[in-house]
Amino acid sequence: MVGEAGRHGVALPGPAAEPARCAPGRADRNPDACGSPAGPAGPSALVFTLDPELTPRLRADIVAVWTEVTNAGGAVGFVPPVSAEQVRVVADQQFAGLGPDRLLIANEAVTGRLAGVLFFEHPRVGHMCHWRLLKRVMIHPSLHGRGYGMRLMAEAEQVARDWGLAAIRLTLRAGMGLETFYGRCGYTEVGRVPGAIRVAPGDDRDDVTMWLDLSARRTGG
Fold it and tell me: Which of 77, 135, 191, 194 is the most exposed place for a label (fewest CB within 10 A)?
């Protein structure tokens, strides 16, 4: 499900100082607990963690989710079929950007299973530090239909607000209904490049940019 959030990209400070990182595996916006619980306790409860310790196990789990999402038809930088080895090359590049970029994960509270992932990418240009680009927004295909995608996006929005950001940007592959999903999350389409993504010969998709104006939503706009 949740699509290809961004394909764009060194570390400059944001518009305001971001919160100091908690100990590895803890959620920045809930420093008194290990992770940020979302929803009632039970099989559908999620625990969100910002800047988790990037252990070999977590790397492997992210690669596995990324591979499963792609092969289920998700638009996260590949066209299926794809192998874990192919995904790992791109994932290692994504992991290498962490520091200025940030990682948010969602685990099922009961099982501990990795359910969702997204990255906040820093623009790395001083006059663009007031927003972040979401990339690799993913929910494991076996967990679709539980509202996890909406909850992951809501958590990302809250994190961005806590950082004092003005907006969030993402890009997506057209033709998959993703505009509707992100529209329900409050995002507005602000740009479209026709046929910029070649999925297969004769199958070119638009590259769509969407924008969440946090200042507007903050005032009810």
Answer: 194
